[in-house]
Design a protein that fits this description.
Number of domains: 2
CATH superfamily of the largest domain: Metal-dependent hydrolases
CATH topology of the largest domain: TIM Barrel
Oligomer: single chain
Number of strands: 16
Structural class: alpha/beta
Radius of gyration: 21 Å
Largest sheet: 8 strands, mixed
Shape: globular
Strand content: 15-25%
Bound molecules: N-(iminomethyl)-L-glutamic acid, fe (iii) ion
CATH class of the largest domain: Alpha Beta
Distance between the termini: 27 Å
CATH architecture of the largest domain: Alpha-Beta Barrel
Helix content: 25-40%
Number of helices: 16
């Protein structure tokens, strides 16, 4: 039976956001807000948005599924544009070592960190990874995330990288969440190639990447460009080849050491450069000029006790800033959207309005989906969240608390916590 269209009406406010591209610099603060608003979603797509009396005037509401949003704010669904969600195993002991002062990179150099998760992910069967991934997507959806990016990068060999990408493709098909897949074969140098990062980049570029492209399992390619991981030259070599083969690019850039990753992302026309705790003014200008989304992950700085990215300065320099969780078993074991939004406003210098843009429209741009999601406009996907409070301001103010009451994905009510 054909699904009835969905009408959300009487909302205290609908924050629509606007545009099919990332919002840059000072534009990030200008939200479009409709008071006493209504929204219609038909066949998964938004067909009307406006004041309730205008949208519902002359409408026979019997033909609709109706959600009365009196006293509640309606926002675009959140887009988490940077996670590493398909992984096996956990690393709680590393977290406790870090609390005693052992640095993240030192744990990695000793063979822990990403390599630890690599071993567990290689051992995990596909059904095991599917079950773990399914549960994580359920929990993310309940946070109001309606589109999530996920990375491979815990296989570091052909078979396991494809296994992770395959799991994401299947979850994308079976789950309400939209999953955007990123190939992160160059996440660390695996033990088989210890001390031979160049040879490993050759292997990834010549053996793994072509099969990833052939399988059509990834939309983007990413590299962990960092001191003692992959250099700018190695990152460029792999990313250029991925671009030539038709993938979009992303980059873990200038996280612990300022290597010029932001400039590299700009040079290659990447969708985004991510982390950026140590990005220089030149790096920020390069991203602003080339339209690379600066994706900030304040949960990671918080968890690693690092200095936060200079988000205020990036916005001042005209960058489009996105916010994402970086959910992974090591540096940031959380996908708490409320935590990320509060950290962004308390420590990264974003206003609540900018933080909202960063988690919706700019997140969508960071995964190449801003034409279809990230704002509540006619023609875009019906991806929305309804808060249990009347204003978007409660998102950052109610620190660490999930105030998302309902989640609508492609016009279907998929979460109801009321
Ligand atoms: O984005 N920095 C590199 N990659 C991940 C962490 C991965 C891990 O520790 O397992 C990040 O923080
Ligand atoms: Fe990451």
């Amino acid at each position: 039976m054909k699904q009835k269209p969905l009408l959300i009406c009487n909302a205290a406010q609908i924050v629509t956001n606007k545009g099919k591209k990332a919002s840059c610099g000072k534009d990030m603060a200008s939200l479009t807000i409709i008071e006493d608003g209504a929204l219609i979603i038909e066949d998964g797509v938004i067909t009307a948005v406006g004041p309730t009396d205008e949208v519902t005037g002359g409408l026979n509401t019997d033909n609709f599924d109706v959600i009365d949003a009196t006293g509640k704010a309606v926002l675009p669904g959140f887009v988490d544009s940077h996670t590493h969600f398909p992984f096996g195993g956990y690393r709680p002991e590393e977290y406790s070592w870090r609390l005693t002062g052992v640095p993240y990179m030192q744990i990695m150099e000793r063979g822990g960190g990403i390599i630890n998760t690599m071993s567990a992910t290689r051992k995990a069967s596909k059904p095991e990874l599917m079950a773990l991934g399914r549960k994580r997507l359920d929990d993310m959806l309940a946070m109001g995330i309606t589109t999530v990016e996920g990375k491979s990068g815990y296989g570091l060999d052909l078979e396991t990288e494809l296994k992770q990408l395959d799991v994401m493709a299947e979850l994308n098909n079976e789950h309400s969440m939209d999953v955007v897949s990123t190939f992160l074969g160059a996440h660390a140098v695996p033990p088989e190639y210890k001390g031979r990062a160049d040879d490993y980049i050759d292997y990834v570029a010549d053996t793994v990447l072509p099969q990833v492209v052939e399988s059509k399992l990834a939309q983007c390619c990413d590299v962990f460009c960092e001191k003692n991981v992959f250099s700018v030259a190695q990152s460029r070599r792999l990313l250029q080849k991925a671009k030539d083969m038709g993938l979009e690019l992303k980059l873990h850039a200038d996280e612990i050491v300022s290597l010029g990753g932001a400039q590299l992302a700009a040079e290659l026309g990447a969708l985004s450069a991510d982390h950026l705790l140590q990005a220089t003014d030149q790096g920020m200008d390069a991203m602003a000029e080339s339209g690379v989304v600066a994706t900030l992950l304040p949960g990671t700085a918080f968890s690693l006790k690092e200095t936060y990215a200079r988000g205020r300065e990036m916005i001042k320099r005209g960058c489009a800033v996105a916010l994402a969780t970086d959910f992974n078993p090591g540096s940031c074991f959380t996908f708490s959207v409320p935590l990320i939004l509060s950290l962004a406003t308390l420590h990264v210098g974003l206003t609540p309005e900018e933080a909202l843009t960063a988690m919706t429209l700019n997140g969508a741009a960071a995964v190449g989906r801003s034409e279809t999601t990230g704002s509540l406009e006619v023609g875009k996907a019906g991806d929305a969240v309804i808060l249990s409070y009347p204003s978007y301001l409660f998102l950052t103010y109610h620190i660490g608390i999930n105030i998302v009451e309902k989640v609508i994905k492609n016009g279907k009510l998929v979460v109801d916590r009321s």
